[in-house]
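Before our next group meeting I need something from you. Please put the record directly below this note.
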Amino acid sequence: MGDQIQFIVEKLNQEPFRKNYNLISFDSLESLPLLQLLSDVLGEIDPKHAVDIREELPEQTAKRMLNLLGILKYKPPGPVSDLSAFRQGLVTGSKTVIHPVLHWLLQRSNELRTRAYLARFLVKLDVPAEFLQDDTVADFNKQYEELMEAFKNLHKEHEQLKISGLSTAEIRRDISAMEEEKDQLAKRVERLKKRVETVQNHQRMLEIARQLRLEKEREESLAQQKQEQKSQLFHAQQRLQRAQVQLKEMQHVVADSKPESLMKKLEEEINFNSYLVTEKIPKEMESKKTSVYFLQKVVAEPAMTQADLTALESERDEVNAEINQLTEKRMIKYEPTDSKFSMYHQQASIISRKKEAKAEELQAAKEEMSSLERQMEQKSSQVHELEGSDVLTEGELKQYVSKLRSKNTFYKKKRQEIAEITAECGILQRTEELLRQRHEAVQQELQAIEEKKGISGYSYTQEELERVSAVKSEMDEVKGQTLDNMSEMVKKLNAMVAEKKASLAPVIKELRQLRQNCQELTQECEEKKIPYDSCAAGLETNRSELEQEVKGLLEECAQEESNYRYINCMKRSLEVQLQRAKEEMKTYLSPEPQERHRALREQYTRIILEQENLGKKLREKQKVVWESHGPNMKQMKMWQDFEQLMKCKRECFLKQQNQAAIGQIIQEGGKDRLVL
């Protein structure tokens, strides 16, 4: 409990409360200041609860605090687990109730602040079921729930963005870099504008250039669309070719098939199905029925023990032995003629069993074939979804292999041509290098001749003049073409402008008539607005006077109500203090010593005497310590010197022992040498 109070005092002395409490002052708080302190802490969590409790009734205060604590999911500790006791303690300002609440709130202030903020928007309003029968109320309620879900999603996104690590410093740096880049681009645009302004008809040329850029973008988009349509056409042609190949194969199969073969296949299938219906399936049904009958019989019987099982097994063994004996007697009794019939019977049974086995194998094969066909259809659909094409058939595969072979031969031929071209390219490079060397030699000779004649640089100047004249002629041709294009474009634009003017002429006439009507209506509106404004101003002044009067009366009522509540609270506190003073006087003036000892005056007097006696003892002890401090320090210094002296003696003794041991070893070594 002491740690809890100390934690509360530390938190209240910090920001944003700054109460400057200590343990004694906090523990001595009365119920009303303690409730006000709890209200301040709740107001820090939720600003709506930052109110003065003197301005509201105690029941309203308790209801408000209980409502917020319920939203914050506070659970009372052990002694006040009863909700009625907790509510009563909160109304009366009991320390056993408020101290744990303050500790819980101050310990989780950040988490609770977020929870209170979310509760403002996520606490659902309880709408009665009979109100929801109205369509308008139901629509509003549905819209309210949708907005609540949208708020949840936005809050989650906000929290994720906060956790994602995007710092404001990085964003500011990016914004500053973008602004610098924007300024640079603006400067470049200004410079380009200044350059363009010197050119004649620059506005017209800029408009033409803008239209040219738009047309180029449109051309690029059209080219992209054309490419997409080409690819779609190519895929469609491929699908058409595959469909045609499949159609040809199916036609070939149908053409090769004869009516006799088809009838034979149908007869075989009919025979197989009739065998299944008449023989196989009835036998299987009969066997299943018998097995079900025996199983039902077994289920109906009571539970069997191990003794019953052993008895049944012994009975089964006896029946099997009897069956074996009867078969042996029958085999001995029958004549040889009957053995032929028995042989035929055995062969027929063997054939019937084989027939059943083959029928089962055929049925299993059909089921497997159907499953494989389903898998093939699934795989083909998957391939069609992934690649947009079906699986190749056998004919398509042959065509594909033949195409690959032709492409392989074509590839080998082109590879040989590339090798020949590479060899020829090497020869041409060598020839070019030789010609370049010869050209350099000729140029050097020409320069030497020009220097001798006194006209150095003549050939270079002539080459430059020829190159410049060629470039000039090309530029003139380009300018002529651009001027022709621009003149054609200007003619087209003028024609378009004339067409637009002609098409807009009736619209402009209608617009003039509408403008005239609009002016007339505006004038009429202004004339009617003057009396309306005067009437509205008069009503507004009357309304403002009434509002001020009502506001003054409300303020006066609120002031009187606050004074009444303050006086009521002060009266209650004075009554409580008067009651405590009466009880104190009663206990103090009581003739019984036990009652007198319970009085606060006696208790505080006794505590003061104890503290004074304790202070005297401590002062005497302090005096004794100060008197013995000097001799004790000298004695401690002497013990330290003694300890240091003993350490030195110990080190000297150890050194002496080591030297003696070394000398003894040397003497023993000398004796050994003498013996040798």
Remarks:
- The two ends are 90 Å apart (CA to CA).
- The mean pLDDT is 78.
- DSSP finds 19 helices and no strands in the chain.
- The longest helix spans residues 458-588.
